[in-house]
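Action item from last meeting closed. Structure (153 res):
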């Protein structure tokens, strides 16, 4: 809105992209601004209303708690006050934590149950670990260039 690009404006933009992925809608579609629609639904009925009414139906097979956590993260990125938004390293850590949560704890009613059981990959000090059948890595906060050159077919 201010035309000043900062790290926090990048976080806002990421929140918009995350909502695009979760809703399957463009940021502005049919004359409606998606961020406003999601914030309005959240104000009216909380996270449950957002997930039930706005999340793309193709994602409905995902555990409800996972979808709720991703919507909560998107809303955190979309705070009007830039100082209230997380920074991108916090966003990255949160996404890694969300996808590391064992599926058995995703369906429990307590949202904090898994936090005591699952350790975040950053706590290990191991560059590559195997968790729940998936490889995870410790994000360094830097972008590493590709060592292979991609060639068109």
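Sequence:
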């Amino acid at each position: 809105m201010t035309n000043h690009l900062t790290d926090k404006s990048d976080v806002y933009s990421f929140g918009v992209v995350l909502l695009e992925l979760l809703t399957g809608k463009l940021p502005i579609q049919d004359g409606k601004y998606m961020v406003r629609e999601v914030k309005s639904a959240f104000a009216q009925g909380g996270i449950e209303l957002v997930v039930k009414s706005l999340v793309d139906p193709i994602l409905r097979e995902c555990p409800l708690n996972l979808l709720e956590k991703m919507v909560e993260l998107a809303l955190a990125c979309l705070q009007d006050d830039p100082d209230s938004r997380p920074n991108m390293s916090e966003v990255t850590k949160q996404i890694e934590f969300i996808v590391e949560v064992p599926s058995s704890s995703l369906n429990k009613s307590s949202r904090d149950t898994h936090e005591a059981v699952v350790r975040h990959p950053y706590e290990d000090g191991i560059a590559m670990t195997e968790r729940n059948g998936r490889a995870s890595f410790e994000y360094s906060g830097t972008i590493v260039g590709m060592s292979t050159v991609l060639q068109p077919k």
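Note appended to the action item: The two ends are 42 Å apart (CA to CA).
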